Fold L-ribulose-5-phosphate 4-epimerase.
Amino acid sequence: MLKALREQVLEANLDLVKGGLVLYTFGNVSGIDRDQGLVAIKPSGVPYDRMKADDIVLTDLDGKKVYGDMRPSSDLATHLLLYKSFSGIGGVVHSHSEYATIWAQAARAIPALGTTHADYFHGPVPVTRVLTDAEIEGDYVLNTGVVIVEAIGDKDPMSMPAALVAGHGPFCWGRDAADAVHNAVVLESVARMAVHTVALRPETRGISQSLLDQHYFRKHGAKATYGQASSDKAL
Amino acid sequence: MLKALREQVLEANLDLVKGGLVLYTFGNVSGIDRDQGLVAIKPSGVPYDRMKADDIVLTDLDGKKVYGDMRPSSDLATHLLLYKSFSGIGGVVHSHSEYATIWAQAARAIPALGTTHADYFHGPVPVTRVLTDAEIEGDYVLNTGVVIVEAIGDKDPMSMPAALVAGHGPFCWGRDAADAVHNAVVLESVARMAVHTVALRPETRGISQSLLDQHYFRKHGAKATYGQASSDKAL
Amino acid sequence: MLKALREQVLEANLDLVKGGLVLYTFGNVSGIDRDQGLVAIKPSGVPYDRMKADDIVLTDLDGKKVYGDMRPSSDLATHLLLYKSFSGIGGVVHSHSEYATIWAQAARAIPALGTTHADYFHGPVPVTRVLTDAEIEGDYVLNTGVVIVEAIGDKDPMSMPAALVAGHGPFCWGRDAADAVHNAVVLESVARMAVHTVALRPETRGISQSLLDQHYFRKHGAKATYGQASSDKAL
Amino acid sequence: MLKALREQVLEANLDLVKGGLVLYTFGNVSGIDRDQGLVAIKPSGVPYDRMKADDIVLTDLDGKKVYGDMRPSSDLATHLLLYKSFSGIGGVVHSHSEYATIWAQAARAIPALGTTHADYFHGPVPVTRVLTDAEIEGDYVLNTGVVIVEAIGDKDPMSMPAALVAGHGPFCWGRDAADAVHNAVVLESVARMAVHTVALRPETRGISQSLLDQHYFRKHGAKATYGQASSDKAL
């Protein structure tokens, strides 16, 4: 049942580890089949080195399990809300990668300080508001998704494929599970550079709108010129 | 004699190295058999790459050696006091892992700045008071244990499985030797993120009590929902 | 066609990865054959682990492709302007290596704070001015070269083989592609040390002119004494 | 000729690389045979991965080459002065390891902020004064040794086996070449922790004299208790 999707999601989870973003079982990746309305997601608390495609759980968009023996990631409800809210995305990643988490813990958006940032994120990477006690004590995992959707607001989720949950860590997304992981890996590098850039120059406001646009649209959209194909980002 | 325990302790010592927490022979792990009242501990100053299960020393809770040819770790007396004071623990780790040591050197508790912290440590990781000259010149290794026990105070050692010895470094513990190492590895990541979070936002007070509780109890205790089993943390 | 050059350029691109300066496909290296006026450069957006010498594109100094099926790096126009402006150089590297990029994002030149710097860069590594909106919206890639050439000014490009593009990242060059990569790797270490040196001692002005000269000329020029040959830097 | 010494020195040079202290050919290790008054030292600018025991150069204490085809390290004169001034040492290391170099570039001694430091260095690791222009333009390499000897002053070089040359980097020494490298590796970790400790707590004065003594003498001297032998540091 959706074997190819489960294999892609397994692969993307392993790429998250290879990208250096994971300690133990922290972090999870999912992917969606939009036609069938089914989400494939990492099982909860299973070590990556023993994970198989058959351990990847399938659920519908209401979180009802339709395949697999394992419990899905405890962050499932956040993933599902992102898929429901952002219709263009095909994969979601949550990690506790250290530098993105540092910005989340500091409850600061990551300003667009350079072209590496601009190549992937069309503006500052937003941080959510702090959840209220009622939201935490209520449907916490769902409410984590609610504040992410709020933080993205009227931005296009495909041109801002990440948000930081205050006091928690980053969620990233993309065209599919692999693309979401790619964005998460770049976010970590961007976050690390931003920590030290701000230390070197606390008053920095970041790059101009024109430089942000120039780099973002060089890699994305109809006029993209980067890579070997003309209409999409790096192959 | 307690071969399985000695093998677990050997394995846990090697995992400490794999976790990147060890330079040369710095650091030591022990485990206890509560029924027999015997502790298995790393020998002093032996390189990890040559260590065998037979080099792991067994002592009773008074530090009398009952198995092995080597001298036990020079930190033995601290380990023993922790086992005597914290009846629920089964393993103890001491390391000089760099970022936990940085907080210890700064004599600052690590505030609970995010959910990674909250998943493992139910509040700020405490730092001991500075030892007096008399305590240092007296039974120094034992007194290191005394100030750790003081720093934990009336906290539950299983929900606060670490303390920083001021000017020295971290001690961690857990259900068994492997769990203690797991906590030490997570502490290092939490400590590293906390150093930079505080730099980015010096006035931060950390996450709310409700978020701390939400994450801690998601992984620990009767209502835990993380992982594949229902009553304990990540398998 | 210029197979040896294409192989050197491939090798230099792979060395950039080995040096830890590259995430995904970020970064590109080129080399020039001065006699034929042809430049060999990495193709755009091709993963390093699949790149072959045949994927390396050859263009003339006006950017007209004379060999290869792939699109050249999207930074080609910057490379070409550097070759035309700095007649002594034989290789060019652009990367987003993190610490050099941090200085670029902070729009600060890297001061000469120690002898590691002085061994390679005969003075502060300059940072360009910020590009105007007109320059960004015009021939952006070419204009990136223009501000680099401006930043080097009347310095000898062989004794200052790097510049930081404000808000972007480093460009480095050298006798050939391999030498340019060597300089880029050293720049990254120098930049990392400089970030923390400035944190430890914000008022530092760096080393004296005499120490800068002593180290620079120990490795470069007719009186060089480093290495096994007498007239050039480390073999 | 002194084959065992040359092999030890080769091994120690390779250990410097394994310890992560070396970029390209930066850094050099030597060892001495006190009976014959001969020093074995790394050749200048030779890549580590091709270095053989036969490339290790032997010189007398005046720097006259007595064995080998290669030029000795360009830092030879510094090494020789240290051997002549510190009669108890058997090995010398110079590196540009990043964090020790950061303190050297900041021209600050590394304060004794914790027991990791105290286990190896019996007090703050001193930094030299800045060399005068005359000293730099004169016999620079020798004068580098002169200011190190000045910085050690009346301290015992065996209990303070390192000094930072202002604006340059660390020199370390020990009983033999391997021990000198061991000290250099520990110094780098100590220096890295000190950078961040000072950031977290700028006003820190470091550990007490009694804690410094307790740890230092636990590993060194007649009353040492660390390791498996009673009279020396970690085996």
Notes: Chain C touches chain A at residues 23-26, 43-47, 70-71, 74, 96, 98-99, 101-108, 130-131, 133, 136-137, 140, 167-169, 195, 198-199 (CB under 8 Å).
